[in-house]
Amino acid sequence: MIYIDNPVGTGFSFTAMDSGYANTEDDVARDLYSCLTQFFTVFPDYQKNDFYITGESYAGKYVPAISYKIHMENPSAKVKISYKGMAIGDGLCDPVTMMPKYADFMFNIGVLDENERDYFQKQTDLAVAKIKAGDYLAAFKYFDTLLNGDETPYPPYFQNVTGLNFYYNFLLAQAPPEFNYYGKFLARPEARRAIHVGNLKYNDGDKVEKHLLNDMMQSVKGKIATILDNYKVLVYNGQLDIIIAVPLTEAWLQTVPWSGLEQYKNATKLIWKLNPKDTDVAGYVRQVKNFYQVIVRGAGHILPYDQPARGMDMIQRFIENR
To answer: Helix, strand, coil shares of the chain as percentages rounded to 5?
Structure first.
């Protein structure tokens, strides 16, 4: 397993020049592909292994971008990657179909009232209009002011009307304290020695995000269609997530132009348990060909924190074709 601080400028990855940051998903894919081919050149013993790409949240853009890049480069590449498929968790993949689903979802889980729902819907409708007009930065500003809250100097609308300072799990009002442990861990000398980063600064990704603001509301649905028709794909959501809620994912999955779309629309939902005799239910699965959509019960946006056993079982079943 290899973990990569991606895009360039996040975590311990770095660039000395402003031009080194990615501004589009093609930029992200170019840099990551260069990294991967160099890795397999230096460590050729790993090249024959089945290769899967996974990522979560905004990696709903990165994962399809690098998957598509490998798909296009592999036939003529000197260093071939044994790419088998991808897994996307709670991914922001196609904002134009996702944005309209926020208002009703939050009303239905009881965090917006009728008037707040209607306001939220009007604002997301305006965001969708901006996306369709190609004004992606203006569309992002609606999203940021309503919910995301990264670039605004004041709390987003969601926080003001719900009192919740956490949109990764609607059962929690604040982020668990454990979410802040890793920064202190990575600052420890023994941790830095173990991962060979010396005195490099740990970057929070803020500058990376600023370079990608115009990318935020753009879609990677076309790339996903190609991957669905050629490789294994897992798309999963935590049942309790707000920022990329289940209805948002199911909205864009209903519109991906791939060969299995009509079968997906008519697929039977299966009940998933970790063990057949369990009384508890781990989640729900729909399968078409080599595509799996999973909803994980009791999990929010950060699945490995909320439901580690279910997350492990899910990814193992996917990789091992079980």
So the answer is: 50, 10, 40
Contact 21, 8 (CB under 8 A): yes
Any catalytic annotation for residue 241?
A: yes
Amino acid letter for position 273: K
Long-range contacts, 9-13 (Cβ 8 Å, 24+):
9/203, 9/205, 9/207, 9/208, 9/211, 10/203, 10/205, 10/208, 11/202, 11/203, 11/205, 12/195, 12/197, 12/200, 12/202, 12/203, 13/203
57, 67, 211, 313: the active-site residue: 57
d(CA 80, CA 68): 14
pLDDT band at 288 (very low <50, low <70, confident <90, very high): very high
Instruction: Please identify which of the residues 27, 94, 241, 306 carries the catalytic annotation.
Output: 241
User: Is 301 designated active site?
Assistant: yes
Q: In 3D, which of 146, 301, 141, 135 has the Cα closest to residue 218?
A: 135
**β-sheet bridge partners, residue 203:** 11
Task: Tell me whether residue 196 is one of the annotated catalytic residues.
Answer: no
Q: What is the pLDDT of residues 194-236, one digit of tens each?
A: 999 999 989 989 999 999 999 999 999 999 999 999 999 999 9
Of the candidates 187, 299, 147, 310, which has an alpha carbon nearest to the alpha carbon of residue 237? 299
pLDDT bracket for residue 66 (50, 70, 90): very high
Catalytic residue among 219, 301, 306, 313: 301
